[in-house]
Structures are given as C-alpha cells and as structure tokens.
Design brief:
The protein is mostly helical. The chain has six helices and two strands, in the order H-H-H-H-H-H-E-E. The protein has one domain. The protein has a two-stranded antiparallel ribbon. The protein is elongated and about 85 Å long.
Length: 147
C-alpha cells in the first residue's frame, strides 16, 4: 500500500510543473486546443469513409486535409517546445560554455583555413609557437624538412 502511494505521489510531483505551466500559459493551451481541433477535423473527414482504402486515398489526394494535418502537427510542435522549456528550466552553464567553445573553435578554424587570411595567420602563429627561426619549411606535400 505504501509503495503504491509513494509511486502516485512521485508521479504527481513530476507532473506538477507541467500542470502549473498549462494553467498559467495561455499560448500552450491555445496550441493544444488548436492541434486537437485540427486533428479532430481530419479524423471526422476520414472517418466518414466506409473503407480504409477510401480514407487513405482521400488523405493522399486532398490538399485541404493535408494542410489541416500539417497545422495540427505544427501546433503540437509548438506545444512540445513550450513544454521543453518547463523541463529544461534555466539554461545549463556547462552547455553554454561548451557552445561558446565550439563557436570559438569554428571561428579559429575559419580564420586559419581561409585562403586570404590563412597563410599570414599561420605564419604568425608558427613564429609565436616555435620562435622566429626558420626551423621548419613548408613544402606543400605534407613533408617537413629542417634547415
């Protein structure tokens, strides 16, 4: 008995942020309501057919039904996006730092591999890392020789 009660209270506790969001968020309620009405309209159109093949043919051929189905899917995606905001809460600092590091690495690679700025930046970087001596000479085929 106690185990069942604990499971129910745990489920209620995990659902609480979603329920509170649904109560407070008018846009989320509108998205769900619009998705339901669009899906219901598609269902009513297709359920009036006697055979499944007739309904499938109508779904494949009727542009209005396809558009209504797209609308329902878009509304559900919007609602799911709003629910994800609840699930995620505030942005994670680790994720933000990782995204910043990836952006910085992408910019650095872009500068280094750019045909206009790349050779100059690579030469400057080599001087800073290896000193001003000409210890290495780039020959273009991947081999390095020392002078």
């Amino acid at each position: 008995m106690n185990n069942t009660k604990d499971r129910v209270s745990g489920a209620a506790a995990s659902a609480r942020p979603y329920v509170e969001r649904a109560i407070r968020d008018k846009e989320l309620r509108d998205n769900v309501r619009n998705a339901y009405s669009s899906a219901r309209a598609v269902y009513d159109e297709l359920a009036s057919r006697r055979k499944v093949s007739d309904a499938a043919t109508r779904l494949a051929a009727d542009k209005d039904i396809q558009e209504e189905l797209r609308h329902a899917i878009d509304e559900l995606r919007n609602a799911a996006g709003r629910v994800k905001d609840v699930k995620r809460g505030s942005s994670e600092p680790g994720r933000t730092a990782w995204n910043g590091l990836l952006l910085l690495a992408g910019i650095a690679l872009g500068i280094l591999l750019n045909p206009i700025t790349g050779p100059t930046v690579r030469r400057l970087l080599a001087r800073k890392l290896f000193g001003s001596g000409n210890g290495f000479v780039y020959q273009g085929n991947g081999s390095k020789t020392s002078s």
